[in-house]
Amino acid sequence: MELYRDIRGELWKMRRTLLIWLHLAVPVLGIIIFLFYYSFAAWSDQGKICGYIEALSIALPLVISVVCAMSVELEEKGHFQTLLGVAVRRRNPVIAKWAVLLGMGFAALLLAVLGFEAGFGVLTGRALLSAERYAVLALTLWLSSMNLYLIHLFLNLAFSKNISLCAGTAQLVVSALFLTGLGEGRWQFFPCAWGGRWSQYLLQCWMGNRVVSWEYVSKNLVCGAAVTLLLWSGFFLWLNFYEGRQCKD
CA 20 to 30 Å from 210, out of 78, 116, 234, 245? Predict the structure, then answer.
């Protein structure tokens, strides 16, 4: 019940901020820009879809760092009293914040991917992928971004928004580089690269360009699960000793 109340409180705090509008405006703006470019670009339909999904995965770390910075700024205004002095269990307000940001992020990704699917279908007059497969791509990007939200919540709570934004920019560069051959054997250990890699493999399999073995998938899933367990364990262990920080960058 305390966690449920914290989630309601988090939604109440965000209702008069730009966070909700940001989750609507960024996907719509991205769809408009890419559809306008694709209306005259000499790419294949497959290349256009892959390019859009890859651009989403690359932009996610920076967007998440901005969203987490805006969310933690709400706590700075109250000198972190909501996080440290209201709840019986200190982790519940942070989990509530994480859950609300994840929910809004999932809605934004669905809008970005399914909105593109609708617009691209009107633009080309045919559907290369079904709506269900587009939804799977959105789910893949969202699941891959869960650790990014946790990382940037930690950076904002422990340090400052400037550190988080710098990390988000670095993750953007890494995620772009690791979509190339530079990422082979390394991307499994960098959560910022997961969304692009997994969505890339799905698209290649669906479009008949590549067959990914189950052994390769399972090995990378185990590696991702180990990294996730390490991140989550470290974060919630650190949270038990968290006492706030100075509210000036």
Answer: 116
Q: Please state at what angle helix 161-177 crosses helix 131-158, rounded to 10 degrees.
A: 140
Residues 6+ away with beta carbon under 8 Å from 220: 188
The H helix count followed by the E strand count for the chain is: 9, 0
What Å distances lie between residue 132 and 9, 102, 128, 154, 156, CA to CA?
Answer: 33, 21, 12, 34, 35
The tokens for 109 are 């990704």
Give ∠ CA 183-31-42 in degrees, rounded to 5: 70
Q: Kindly report whether the global pTM for this prediction surpasses the value 0.85.
A: yes
CB atoms inside a 10 Å sphere around CB 16:
8
Distance CA 14, CA 211 (A): 44
Is the Cβ–Cβ distance between 228 and 188 less than 8 Å?
Answer: no
